[in-house]
Amino acid sequence: MMIRKVLAFGLVSAITALANAQIVTNFEQGGKLYWKFNSGQYNITGALSLSGNISASNPLEFPLQDLNNDGRQLDVELRIQDLFPDLGINYTLNLIGTVVSENSNEAILRWAADVNPNQCVTVSISGTTVQVLITRLAGALQARVTPIACQSNPYNSEWQNVTLQFEDNGGDANNFLRVEGYLFCPNVPIDALFATAIVNNMDWEAYGGGFTGVFGNVNGDNIVDDADLLQVLFNFGSDDAATDTNGDGIVDDADLLTVLFNFGASC
Q1: Sign of CA dihedral 168, 146, 36, 245
Q2: What is the CATH number of the domain that holds 216?
Q3: Report field, pTM of the whole predicted structure over 0.70
Q4: Residue-wise pLDDT tens digits, 192-230
Q5: 253-261 vs 2-30: helix axis angle to the nearest 10?
Q6: Residue 128, strand partner residues
């Protein structure tokens, strides 16, 4: 009787641990973020005075990367001109992703960067084109991430299926872009040429995840069956990332249970 109780407690613990870690692990396993900017506003002050609304961008596909070598595939390379076409800033910004919080119902993820490029780029805004020496680029995006039923990608049916929905979260303090620099790219700083551009009041959304290992689909064929069970058994005790359903670094009982509990599921 005592042995059965210990085994039952271990089973419940494994299930609970899986549920609590599922959202971010599913996101990493999916490997991509599908992002759409809907609207926002920009305000430029200093040597140049402009303000206005930013048009919606086309949906963008961002591969997830580990750009800061922290072992998490949560980071993205953001080409500013693609995301905010109205700004015309041709520069790629590495946004580092962090997990603010996570439970079984939702996760809060934040991407941020603050760099000093000291790079001369061409900027085109509202018909005005000018060379700008960008001395600082700072930005952040924060999302509330919630699980959704596995479905075709709303942005492009040819992209992979998705199981997570992202909504902007945290207001202007956590969703902004700040650009500082000098007009005409002077060789030495000239205060009269200094300008600051701020993008805020952002409305954006995204999708990610997929029918991945957290659902027991370790071989990626969109159905949990004998093939997934065999893959777990053959890799049992290893650190094979593709078979490690919960991302804890080892293929063990918890991964086997994931496949068994989801056996027959498909997307």
Answers
A1: positive
A2: 1.10.1330
A3: yes
A4: 999 999 999 999 999 999 999 999 999 999 999 999 999
A5: 80
A6: 125
